[in-house]
Amino acid sequence: MNQLKSALLGGSRYRASAGFDEETPLLATRPIIASPFMPFGTQTSCEPTERQSTNSPSTPLARRYGTAPEKPTIGEQDSNNEDESEEESSFSSSGSSSETRTGGFSSLSKREWATIVMLAFANLCSTIAFGCIAPFYPGEAQLKGLNSSQIGIVFGAFELVMFICAPLLGRYMAFFGSKRMFVAGLIITGITAMAFGGMNLMPPGMPFFFTSLALRCVEAVGDAAFVTSSFAISAKAFPGRIATIVGIMETFAGLGYMLGPVVGGVLYEYGGFQLPFFVLGGVLILAGTVSCYLVEEYIDEPGEDTKGMMGMLKIPHIWIMVYAVVICAISLSFLDPTLSPHLASFNLSPSMIGLLFLLCGGVYTVTAPFWGLLIDRYRCTNFLMLFGAVATVISMFLIGPTPLLGMTKDLFWIGVGLALLGLAAGALYIPTFQNCLDAVRAKGYEDNFQTYGCVSGVFQSAFAFGGFIGPTLGGMGVEWIGFAWTTTLIAAVNVVFILILIAFFAAICIRQRCAKELLETKIPLNC
């Protein structure tokens, strides 16, 4: 039981307690688990070829990301073990590029601070523009003759396009350039947001539906470009502070989700349908223009590796992270088209509905940097993910409320559930990017934009997949079985993840124990 607890806490401590030397690759001891999301395996392969570092000599000691050099295992001392020697060489070649700065944020240059500010501001503007339609678009769409399923498709199409585009953009990021992709993505998103402001001039019925759908798809391409590149830039620019930087970006993204419905509701009340899109689209275009001068230019080294995105998808740990990101996105995005109608019985104004959306985004915003700092300091990623999944289950039971507990619909408990969901989402989502990077480094991937682009592409594609499933199937579920049972089903999906996570790391503990006993049998302690 103690070993299981140590495994959930992550890091190198539980490996040492299991009797393994630090050099033993963690993922080499993990069992193969069939993924519930195999459609990712059909995505376009990014085939970065493995290169040996020419800047520094390879050493016999692999260096794991953000840690001190580790001791070689007995297997490395065995000259006849060719497989382990090859893997060790892969770690050594990538380890030299994984050096991290030990100073605090005071050691950052002005240009690096400007990069952080623009990454944060871009995430803020984008999520405000994305979330501003939640309080009023469903009502406007219903007046135009759309049903709940069609409204859910309009919301979900954004994420479906991101699901398709993110891996492709990550694959070719080094070719186009991370900064150019970032700037172009912001400007495209801003232009399409402004174009969406003219949707109220469209005739009702299918013309309104298909035009909304087309604009959301184009907007999604721009959003996928700048979000995917922003994660890759953060990994390249701040290798020792990835979780903290991701936490900062997610703080502003959460602030955008929090302010988006509020800003959208207020602008809609005072200026009608067009004002929110014109204002926020203009801000996005301005942000893209400013980022041309403030975001630092990085050399995007286009590698020629034998590894790549298809190789990443063969790593079991990656699929655990994919599942976590997908269910987190489902839990959040499901509420975009459904929460406003769910609250209709309380006769709330658009501004008040926006304030309820603010509860979820506000808690997420406040707690996101805390999770990032906690991860960078204690490496407790797996424990936080388990906590986030459990808290998500409870929040869904309260928001529904679930018929399983016989609760009545109450505005207070819905608010508590939304706040708890914001807390849970940060704990579940923020550790996953760091875990993905650690997993691919453990398999010998280099620290370059090929790797960062591929990881970010898979990461964003997973979130987009969940973001598509949430509003699309969620809207259909509300139509067929009601809001309460739909939230109960989402809670059940999170329960499945909890069981998989526990079983995965329990299997690691068992396998490590067997390997330890085998080593002790082959090498007596008195020799």
From TrEMBL:
Residues 90-105 have a biased composition (Low complexity). InterPro entries: MFS (IPR011701), MFS_dom (IPR020846), MFS_trans_sf (IPR036259), MFS_Vesicular_Transporter (IPR050930). It is found in: Membrane. Gene3D superfamilies: MFS general substrate transporter like domains (1.20.1250.20). Residues 79-89 have a biased composition (Acidic residues). Keywords: Membrane, Transmembrane, Transmembrane helix, Transport. It is a multi-pass membrane protein. Residues 115-511 form the Major facilitator superfamily (MFS) profile domain. GO terms for cellular component: membrane. The chain crosses the membrane at residues 113-137, 149-169, 181-202, 208-233, 245-267, 273-295, 316-335, 355-375, 382-399, 411-430, 451-469, 489-510. The keyword Membrane applies. Residues 38-105 are annotated as: Disordered. Residues 41-59 have a biased composition (Polar residues). GO terms for molecular function: transmembrane transporter activity. PANTHER family: GH10249P, MFS-TYPE TRANSPORTER SLC18B1. This is Major facilitator superfamily (MFS) profile domain-containing protein. It comes from Steinernema hermaphroditum. The lineage of its organism: Eukaryota, Metazoa, Ecdysozoa, Nematoda, Chromadorea.
